[in-house]
Amino acid sequence: MSLPRKSYRSDLTDAQWQRIKRFLPKPARTGRPRAVDREVINGILYVMWMGCRWDDLPHDIAASPKTCHRRLLEYQRRRVWQKILASLTKEAYRKGLSNLNNAYHDASVIKSKRGTRPSRFFRKTLD
Predict the structure, then answer these.
(1) What is the pLDDT of residues 47-101, one digit of tens each?
(2) CB count in 10 Å sphere of residue 117
(3) Could you give the CA distance from residue 68 to residue 39 in angstroms, rounded to a whole number?
(4) What burial class does residue 42 get, using C-beta atoms within 10 Å of its C-beta: 0-12 exposed, 13-18 middle, 19+ buried?
């Protein structure tokens, strides 16, 4: 499904959309119609990618800034992002694209030097 607007660099491709749409919560059967989930995700990704305010979301994205922000918080609360990341991580591991058996989360495993000599600048300011 192609979008009826110009695409942004942050927009999901069709393949990416097919992968993640199963993790999104199903809409309620009654009540007001929801904004299109793909456009909401594209709005969220635009703000995260560009680092702009929600109010600066382009008008051609077919979801309001309030809807995008509200849905971001809903997805965080329902752990949608964690489920998507876990699925992509498992797939990458299964395909041999990542190996987390020997991964470290910080540099604390590297031995540091016991002490350093003060720099020339620092020694001059102490005198």
Answers:
(1) 999 999 999 999 999 999 999 999 999 999 999 999 999 999 899 989 988 877 7
(2) 7
(3) 9
(4) buried
> Which amino acid belongs to residue 40?
V
Q: Which two tokens stand for residue 89?
A: 């991580």
2-40 tens-digit pLDDT: 557 888 999 999 999 999 999 999 988 899 989 999 999
Q: Where are the domains of the chain?
A: 14-94
Q: Can you list the alpha helix ranges (DSSP code H) found in the chain?
A: 14-20, 37-50, 65-77, 80-94, 120-126
Q: Which residue has the tokens 């299964």?
A: 94
